[in-house]
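User: Can you predict the 3D structure for this chain?
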Amino acid sequence: MKRRDFVRNAGSAVFLGALPACASPPPAESHFTLWSWVHGNRDRDAGEWRRLFARLRETGFHAVLVGGGDIELVSGAARAEGLEYHRWFWTMNRNGDAWVQSNHPEWFTVSRNLERSLEHPPYVGYYRWVCPSRGPVREYLRGRIAELASNPAIDGVHLDYVRHCDVILPRGLWETYDLVQDVEHPEFDFCYCEVCREQFAALDGRDPLEIPDPTADEAWRRFRWDSVTGAVRELAAAAHENGKPITAAVFPTPTIARRLVRQDWDQWPLDRFFPMLYQGFYLEDIPWIGDGVREGVAALAATDRDARGGAATPLNAGLYLPSLDPAALAEAIATARASGASGVSTFEMDGLTDEHLAAIRDATA
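Assistant: Here is the predicted structure, written as structure tokens:
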């Protein structure tokens, strides 16, 4: 495999049993909302941020999902232009967290090859993941979410990388890494740390490393799904206890998410979901976006009916601008809307040309 600096500059959203609710679900919306992911760590002053956010507001955008940068500066500019400011948070991928890496190297996930992602990050150098099965990891992340949610400058918390590492990449990325991933290769299969192995053995009586074919074992797959879901429940509680909504960027559909990244997102007690329906990554076309929206909306409706008994949790289709010229973006928005999405989110703001914004206005008029 060749390591390549894939999507480092594009940012994290490229990849980006029923549970009781931690808070009442939001009411059903009567309007179609527009959001955008934003890299907040750009060298811009308040005036420049306001100018950029004014473009969004004039187009009809509702909120921004901002990663990095000065919270007070960027939030102030967004709110001054009438936009909600939601803080975009890397969750299980803690590549930029020097404190964790220095003080708790044991927190990082371990592959079936028994290599820790801290020292042996798969695919690219920034893929360093902490293990959601570990109590101290959950406690640490919960504290970070509570800190964000308690900040009056923040209108909501947005989770990203809230999953395990990709055991299989989207089909459109295999050539990027000179890989064929028609099976689960051990160097990408996580997590086999001592805590995961002990917890699974206590539940099931087996050591995952001794399962003849762990890739086909339903109980072992379910354990990984549930480890992430259990962590999300705690993070959602932290946000809701501070009176803030919590959302997440997730893989395109529940089926794809469970298979590729051990992410059972339709079972999570969040306030809105942003499935990354990046059709080019899957060698698909725009109608596939509609298929993904319908699957996600139906799955959330079933969970809401069974676990919450309330209105369906909103789903905004995540759209990848490098794969969408203005005409294709208008078609994608129309497709998502007709398929039941509550809105869309674009990745990311700096890619929105004037022509894109005109297409958005036409598609949402």
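Residues 31-364 form a domain with the TIM Barrel fold (CATH 3.20.20.80). The longest strand covers residues 33-39.
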